[in-house]
Amino acid sequence: MNLLQVRKMMLFTAQKMIESEPTLTALDQLVGDGDHGIGMKRGFTAIMVLLQDEKFQPTNIGDFFTQIGTKLMISMGGASGAIFGTLFRAGGKSITGVTEFDSDVLSKLLNEGWQAVYQRGKAKPGDKTMVDALAASATTASQLTSSKLIDALPKIAQSAMEGAEKTKQMIAVFGRTKNLGERAIGHMDPGAASMAYILKYMNEYIQT
Ligand code: ADP
Ligand code: MG
Ligand code: MG
């Protein structure tokens, strides 16, 4: 995929994330303060506006994702603004200069993004955060770097969804969900759901 195709994929993803606001809000109402859907909607609306602006002309795919991360960070707020902003900023920086988006590039973005998210928030897999979906997708991506993107992305997105599903069984270590203790069991972490949805929609775009 070239930069223009990546741009179209992320515009589609942004529109779908905006539509997911009620689902994400409902999840955060169960385990948090109910604002996650609103935050994601605000962030991806800002991205939609950016991607529809002809003056936005990043020079390469790394620069593209870095700027998306910056946009999320400044527009979203909350824990997830810093976390998802960091994912795309650090992920984008790790692929600076790249002009072709393939499985290897996606693996770098997810794995470097995961490391940066860990540095920022210290959440490990099993702590009931978006890291459970991110780590699962990054691990699968690193096993599929020589596959075609169209074959790898469904599996990467599937792993993220499985990682998000697993958060239902977890007790939280961070944020408001921590205060719920065992009452959080049975509920998916909203940030993990968002992470899984982002990859799901990227995949939906490239399969059509
Ligand atoms: P807030 O908690 O400030 O209301 P949101 O509701 O938008 O922010 O986002 C909550 C999500 O942020 C959680 O579901 C979780 O996935 C993610 N999150 C919170 N803290 C961390 C952390 N330290 N590391 C990674 N992700 C985190
Ligand atoms: Mg919240
Ligand atoms: Mg909040």
Automatic annotation (TrEMBL):
Annotated PROSITE patterns: DHAL
Transferase as UniProt keyword: yes
Keyword Kinase: yes
Gene Ontology MF: a single term: glycerone kinase activity
InterPro entries the UniProt entry points to: DhaK_L_YcgS, DhaL_dom, DhaL_dom_sf, Dihydroxyacetone_Kinase
GO annotation, biological process: glycerol catabolic process
Protein name from the UniProt record: Dihydroxyacetone kinase, C-terminal domain
